[in-house]
Design a protein that fits this description.
The complex is a heterodimer of chains A (326) and B (396). Chain A has 326 residues and is of the alpha+beta class. Chain A has eleven helices and eight strands. In chain B, the strands form three sheets. A seven-stranded mixed β-sheet of chain B has the order 2-8-7-6-5-3-4, with helices on both faces. Chain B has a four-stranded antiparallel β-sheet with strand order 9-10-13-12. The C terminus of chain B is likely disordered. Helices cover 39% and strands 14% of the residues of chain B. The chains are: A alpha+beta (326), B alpha/beta (396). The interface between A and B is medium-sized, with 33 and 29 residues.
Chain lengths: 326, 396
């Protein structure tokens, strides 16, 4: 929250003039019949995407020259809001003159950019990016029909956020590389989840088969697993340092030193000690211990013995170790 | 021509109300709690305002009408007051409300659920109405409060408040009703309906924004939401916005005075608008025409997405509203639309027109013209409406 968020603005205020113009007077709106297609010398393709019950539905008409695969003409019909209509209009326009293979490469982001008045100012508010996604999907559908293939065959990677077209692998990579811990960070790095927000967690505008919260949890769980495995391997090969050790390895390492260098002396005096806990108190590692037997209550426990123990551990394990008797 | 048909969102302030408020800014500016004449000078008009408010909902003198900032505050005061007094410091743990309440009820209930309170959300039937017997089905010894709105903001549907009030009285459970959409549209009588708490908001009946009221029946006082000074008998601290209170009082009087006009003339214009739209093929009144406030109609126009419809009307300076998800900040359809089935086309094609006594015949004629043209244009573009003008007499 900040000054700019306190008064909810009208989403219409954020539409570009292009969006407004195309909503008020879409130039490629209409239908193409078989006769019209034959007259134009091409094959008619009619593709539908979405449904009225979802709030968005679009029908795309193409006339395709079968020798060159070039889209000669393109029109649309749309049930949807202003953004959906304006996006469909630009989408139909962008198709004309392209080959079917080129048209498949048109994304909703291209459509949104084409609707901008100024290259740096978005044509629609974030939550309306969602309405341009259908324009992208329907092109795939039309191309699939023309080529007689399955629509999914055009998808080379799994897209998680359709508004910003961010793939699963991109999100996983960015979490790993930057050690991201929150969904907000993912959005900051990739823009995934910045628009209609459906992909963040279940319960949004649209149901998804995978959500950012799950990707984050799964990726972090995987990262943690790998870290533990790395620590275990390192320790096995004798190349681990104290700060990469797991808590169990740290206790073991300290215990080993105590057993060889400290405990025999304590036991001789009728005492002993145990490790209670190890806490990271950066830059220090605080090792909480308790004296047992004759050692408990011994004055040296907080002076000589303590200093000796600490200096051996510092020397043999890590110089940031501190011993705190409780 | 500008035509405002979104009076369930807010209304124009009646010029008489505005005039009545004016002296309290630069002339009668004293603090009503002060002993001197500057303070005391505000009292006569405040008393008059209270009289109008008490008369407006038929409250007894022994009861309270607390002046609040809005119906949202009134609703919060009741729900959180009940929570503190009857649940945290009592032996109850259950609240009954409906699925179609304003967010100032449902969001508070969600909050209370997170605190461990059990909440029952009653569904509406096919006509968008809560059936009184469902309250009876769920009410128990554990129930601390029943909160059901008097009339729905989207559909204008009037709920069986008298029957629900009777059930609550019989069971000895306090009954709260959010009457925000009822005041000025239909008669509201707290005594006849056994109401314990009632919320209202001035700006829905030609009063100013930022002021509302909460009726509290004697013996049902609650822990206040705002602690502080002794204003409102200690039930709502904070210096009273005198100008707004005076404005709300007069607005209430005028609203009650115009009830007959509302149910004849405003209703006639609403029906005229509605009938003209219903002449277009494949249009329906969502929830049906029975039992509605006289100013409201929620119409589904097949093949036309709600926000698009608002857009085209706005281009011709007509303001209406839609429950369509696409038109909201968060892309969420409103709960009333969802109550009719979120997968239904209705959720995306509903447009709400809400009139007031300030709408004129000419405005409605103009609106009808604009709406017909918008429907024609958008259905031409629409992929989900088979546009075959020759099949329809109206050529739409």
């Amino acid at each position: 929250m900040a000054k700019g968020d306190l008064i909810s603005g009208s989403i219409w205020d954020e539409y570009s003039n292009q969006v407004i113009r195309r909503m008020d007077d879409p130039t490629h709106q209409g239908e193409i019949t078989e006769e019209m297609a034959a007259k134009a010398g091409g094959k008619l393709i009619v593709a539908d995407f979405g449904a009225e019950s979802c709030g968005d539905a679009v029908r795309l008409y193409w006339v395709v020259n079968e020798e060159t695969d070039v889209i000669i003409d393109s029109k649309f019909k749309s049930f949807g809001c202003g953004t959906a209509i304006a996006s469909s209009d630009v989408m139909a326009e962008l198709c004309i003159g392209k080959t079917v293979d080129e048209a498949i490469k048109i994304t909703n982001i291209d459509v949104e950019h084409a609707l901008r008045d100024h290259p740096d100012i978005p044509a629609v508010p974030p939550q309306k990016m969602h309405c341009s996604v259908m324009a992208y999907d329907v092109i795939k559908k039309a191309a699939a029909q023309y080529k007689g293939v399955d629509m999914e065959s055009f998808e080379t990677e799994k897209i998680v956020c359709e508004c910003a077209r961010v793939s699963l692998s991109t999100i996983q990579d960015v979490i790993r590389i930057n050690d991201l811990k929150t969904v907000e960070q993912i959005t900051d790095y990739t823009k995934a989840g910045a628009f209609c927000k459906s992909c963040i967690r279940p319960g949004g505008h649209e149901e998804k088969d995978i959500y950012l919260v799950d990707i984050l949890a799964d990726t972090r769980a995987l990262m943690e697993q790998e870290r533990l495995k790395e620590a275990a391997d390192a320790s096995q090969e004798g190349r681990s340092s104290f700060d990469t050790m797991t808590i169990v390895q740290r206790i073991k390492a300290i215990d080993e030193v105590l057993d060889t260098d400290i405990r025999p002396m304590l036991i001789m005096d009728g005492g002993n000690m145990e490790i209670i806990d190890i806490k990271e108190n950066m830059p220090h590692y605080d090792v909480y211990i308790r004296y047992l037997g004759a050692c408990s209550g011994c004055a040296s426990g907080s002076t000589g013995t303590l200093y000796a123990m600490e200096s051996i551990l510092k020397q043999k394990i890590d110089e940031n170790i501190r011993i705190l008797p409780i | 021509m500008e035509v405002y048909l979104d009076n369930n969102a807010t209304t124009v302030v009646d010029p008489q109300v505005y005039k009545a408020m004016e002296p309290f800014f630069c002339t009668l500016y004293g603090n009503p709690n002060s002993l001197h004449k500057f303070g005391a000078g505000t009292h006569p008009k405040m008393v008059e305002a209270l009289n109008y408010l008490y008369d407006g909902i038929n409250a007894a003198d022994e009861d309270d009408i607390i002046i609040t900032a809005n119906a949202t505050e009134s609703n919060n005061t009741v729900l959180k007051g009940i929570w503190i007094d009857k649940i945290l410091n009592g032996d109850k743990n259950h609240i009954i409300t409906s699925e179609v309440e304003h967010p100032s009820i449902t969001a508070v209930c969600k909050f209370l659920e997170a605190q461990g309170v059990s909440v029952t959300y009653l569904p509406v039937n096919d006509e968008g109405v809560i059936e009184a017997h469902t309250v009876k089905d769920f009410i128990s010894d554990d129930t601390a409060l029943v909160s059901i709105m008097w009339a729905n903001n989207e559909t204008g549907k009037i709920f069986p408040i008298k029957e629900i009030g009777a059930i609550c009285k019989e069971k000895g459970v306090p009954f709260h009703t959010d009457a925000t959409q009822a005041i000025g549209k239909i008669a509201v009588d707290v005594q006849a309906c056994n109401v314990t708490y009632l919320s209202f908001s001035a700006h829905k009946f030609h009063g100013p924004k930022g002021v509302g009221g909460l009726y509290v029946k004697k013996g049902h006082e609650l822990t206040p939401l705002l602690h502080g000074g002794e204003q409102m008998g200690g039930h709502r601290a904070g210096t009273v916005d005198v100008a707004s209170m005076v404005g709300m009082g007069l607005a209430m009087k005028l609203a009650v005075d115009h009830l007959e006009f509302e149910n004849t003339e405003v209703k006639r214009l609403r029906d005229k608008l509605e009938d003209a739209i219903l002449e277009l093929p494949e249009t329906i009144v969502i929830g049906g025409k029975q039992n509605r406030t006289p100013n409201t109609t929620l119409i589904s126009i097949r093949g036309v997405e709600g926000e698009s419809m608002l857009w085209d009307m706005n281009q011709k300076t007509i303001g209406a509203s839609t429950g369509s998800a696409c038109a909201s900040e968060d892309l969420e359809a409103n709960p009333v639309m969802n109550a009719f089935g979120s997968d239904s086309e209705l959720a995306h094609t509903g447009v709400r027109f809400s009139l007031s006594r300030f709408n004129t015949e000419e405005q409605i004629d103009y609106a009808i013209e604009v709406i017909k043209n918008a429907v024609k244009r958008l259905r031409t573009i629409s992929s989900s409406y088979a546009y075959t003008p020759k099949n329809h007499k109206s050529e739409l």
